[in-house]
Amino acid sequence: MYNILDYITWRGDLNFALSPFNDVDNLILTELAYATMENIVSGLNSEKEITLKEFSSQYRKLKYNQSYMANDPQPLISATGKSKRFGNIKLKYYVNEVNQEKEVQFSAVTFILDYKHCYVAFRGTDNSLVGWREDFILSYADESNGQNKSIEYLNYVGNNTDKNIIVGGHSKGGNFAIYASAFCQKKVSKKIKRVYSNDGPGFNQSVTEKSGYKEILPKVKLIIPEDSIIGIIMSNTEKKSVVKSNARGIKQHNPYTWSVIGTRFEKARGQSKSSLLMDDAIDRWARSMTRQQRENVICAVFNSLEASGAETFTELNSNKKIYYSKVIKSLFALNGDTKKEIMAGAVNLAKAGKDVLLEEAQKSLNTLIKSKSR
Fold it and tell me: What is the rounded CA–CA span in Å between residue 36 and residue 361?
């Protein structure tokens, strides 16, 4: 199977005028949004731009290292920087905020593709505990702080450009892309030509019932791998483009594993059975708890993780004996009702998974019996 790096080798010599922007280009830009851009790309208060070729050079000089990430952007930074297709793309308006007190992990950057188009990329979940906390907040809150910031960011870009806008993101960034596009200013919305969510989670019913969400759906393209887990969480547009991957399970969330043929992704027949079963199990688990119960459990678990003093999962795993002992101590210190809610949440999740598997086994058995009785 070929992936996005192979695509750059094959198509990297043609600019967007000769070969129009496509779904694969979209995924590449959302992956580049994970790159550390501090001290290289200008922020919102500056119109200064830097080409991807120049960015790649500066990234190397500053010796940034993101190898702790499964989807380390460094190979892509190097490949795109050397290519004619991506090397002249300009970057600007970089923002990055990770704030534990405000429960927000938000980052975005704007790519100027040519004189007609720009791509607004929202970063997905990083390695921080607060980033993962915000992911889970999406399961009960009407709006997260990150979602609110995504609207502010898109409005800023939209009001400062006369270009057509493409919006996208990977993982939580895909959620932000849809949310910002749905609820941005009308004059900005008119400039949006396409919205991409690359294996991004969906939304609460309180969001999907709003007119802004329904109006943006015709412009949305949701792309998920066949074993998708993240991209099936909560409600999302039913129009899913399912692609093949050279990995299995949760590892398919990594953009480097998606199969590319020419200028498109290799289509899968549909979601795998494991993805559909997981989808059903998660839905049953969510319905087994009230919104308040979900909030209580999520807050308690992440408060305990943060009580360890670690700020990232890498840090948490660097000295498991010290950090996890603090986490366990914090969990034991919780009041009785909260402990019961956490246990109930775990039991309900296990039960939902068990029920789905039993029902699937019964269906398979019935099918086998019918086939033998013919």
Answer: 47
Q: Which of 54, 155, 48, 64 is nearest to 108 (CA)?
A: 155
Residues 6+ apart with CB under 8 A from 270: 226, 242
Q: Which domains does the chain have, with CATH numbers?
A: 4-272 (3.40.50), 289-373 (no CATH)
pLDDT at position 347 is 60
Range scoring the smallest mean pLDDT among 36-40, 76-80, 246-250: 246-250
For the stretch 35-73, pLDDT in tens is 999 999 999 989 999 999 999 999 999 999 999 888 999
Global pTM exceeds 0.70 = yes
3-state DSSP assignment of residue 338: helix
Kindly calculate the radius of gyration of the chain based on its CA atoms and give it in whole angstroms: 22
Burial annotation 308-346 (CB, 10 A radius, 16+ → b, else e): bebebbeebeeeeeebeebbeebbeebeeebeebbeebe
